[in-house]
Amino acid sequence: LFRSLRYWLYGRFEIRAKLPTGRGTWPAIWMLPTDWEYGDWPKSGEIDIMENKGYQPNIVSSALHFPGHSGGNPITQTFGYENQRFDTDFHIFAVEWDESQIDFFVDNVLYKRVKAVDVTDGEWVFDHPFFIILNVAVGGTFGGNPTEDTVFPQSMYVDYVRVYRKSTSPEQPGAAGGDVSSNGTIGS
After folding, report:
1. Element (H, E) at 18
2. DSSP state of 118
3. What pLDDT was estimated at residue 8?
4. ω before 153 within 30° of 0 (cis)?
5. Is the confidence at residue 172, as pLDDT, over 80?
6. pLDDT of residue 185
7. β 184-187/75-80 pair status
8. How far apart are CA 89 and CA 131, in angstroms?
9. How many CB atoms sit inside 10 A of residue 39's CB?
10. Is 148 assigned a catalytic role?
11. Which of 6, 24, 125, 154 has a CB 3.0–4.6 Å from the CB of 146, allowing a cystine?
């Protein structure tokens, strides 16, 4: 079970990062609930701000996992560039989340909006605090397994993590206001 010192209910979550590359790498920026209010995964939800299959360096995806939409059946969307890669330069991955919808962005381009009222085949559970996870997995069903051509070590370089909330948002225990910044590397 994950625990975090910082968690938020609603806001803009923005991460500027440069991703690893190679078959079998699976960088991800995602969110899980602090308390499993509705039950174990996926009953309390998961917000995938960004996931990447390392063998597709120009494509990322986002996803929402919750009852009726979990595992291989999330609400998901891909975003890609024809002439840019996510492993050669930094890019901004963001989600804006409030009571009624969740919006996904890459480099400030909105590419997916999910409205609570449009979810008729599952239960909208995104009404409690979540925390952020940044990781690089190796292997798995999403990006496949490494091959002899996969170069290690691999790293996800993180320039910053910023969390913004509306001034009208209620104070939240454990929440950090304004800018939560971190410079560093996440590697495998």
Report:
1. strand 11-18
2. G
3. 94
4. yes
5. no
6. 47
7. unpaired
8. 26
9. 10
10. no
11. 24
User: In one letter, which amino acid is 118?
Assistant: D
Dist. CA 136–CA 53, nearest whole Å: 11
Mean pLDDT over residues 51-66, rounded?
Answer: 97
Assess contact for 33 and 129: CB atoms under 8 A.
yes
Closest residue by Cα to residue 140 from 51, 79, 38, 77: 51
**Catalytic position from the list 14, 37, 51, 99:** 51
Give the pLDDT confidence of 3-20 residue by residue, as tens digits.
456 899 999 999 999 999
Which pLDDT tens digit goes with each residue over 17-43?
999 999 999 999 999 999 999 999 999
Q: Which of 37, 46, 148, 171 is catalytic?
A: 46
Say if strands 155-164 and 11-18 run parallel, antiparallel, or are unpaired.
antiparallel
How far, in Å, CA of 43 to CA of 35, rounded?
A: 11
pTM over 0.70: yes
Strand partners, 24: none
